[in-house]
């Protein structure tokens, strides 16, 4: 496990090709409330599409789900970074007050969630209240 700034990252054994999970916190310019979900959803759908495109991929799943009792948007895409093996990625955006938490799971393409780390991240993540 490694901490850097507002990010926490864990990688399975096996080096750079091992599954990875991370949670990164960002400060929002304006406070989010659940009443803004529909607007945020549209914006997050665009952000996810740009993330996927930046890694030569396309979003294959967009869902509304619950993390830490809060409705969030989560996305799946296969990334094809130049010079690196393809990965199956899942990213979720948790909005809480003036914080955005980005949850990320990445595993070798076609491997699913080999050690259950992605499912564990999305089922146990708790936003830090400030």
Number of helices: 2
| Fourth-level CATH superfamily | Mog1/PsbP, alpha/beta/alpha sandwich
CATH fold node name: Protein Transport Mog1p, Chain A
CA-CA gap between termini: 23 Å
Radius of gyration: 14 Å
Descriptive report:
This protein is an alpha+beta fold and 130 residues long. The protein has one domain (19-111, 120-124): Protein Transport Mog1p, Chain A, CATH 3.40.1000.10. The protein is 20% helix and 48% strand. It contains two helices and six strands; from the N terminus they run E-E-E-H-E-E-E-H. It has a six-stranded antiparallel beta sheet with strand order 1-2-3-6-5-4, with helices on one face. Strand 4 and strand 5 form a beta hairpin. The radius of gyration is 14 Å and the shape is globular. The two termini are 23 Å apart. The mean pLDDT is 91.
């Amino acid at each position: 496990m490694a901490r850097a700034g507002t990010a926490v990252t864990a990688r399975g054994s096996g080096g750079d090709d091992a599954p990875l999970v991370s949670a990164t916190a960002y400060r929002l310019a304006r406070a989010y409330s659940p009443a803004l979900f529909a607007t945020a959803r549209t914006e997050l759908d665009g952000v996810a599409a740009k993330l996927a495109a930046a890694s030569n991929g396309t979003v294959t799943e967009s869902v509304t789900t619950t993390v830490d009792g809060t409705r969030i948007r989560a996305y799946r895409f296969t990334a094809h970074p130049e010079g690196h093996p393809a990965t199956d990625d899942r990213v979720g955006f948790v909005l809480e007050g003036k914080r955005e938490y980005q949850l990320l799971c990445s595993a070798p393409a076609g491997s699913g969630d080999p050690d259950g780390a992605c499912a564990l991240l999305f089922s146990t993540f708790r936003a830090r209240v400030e």
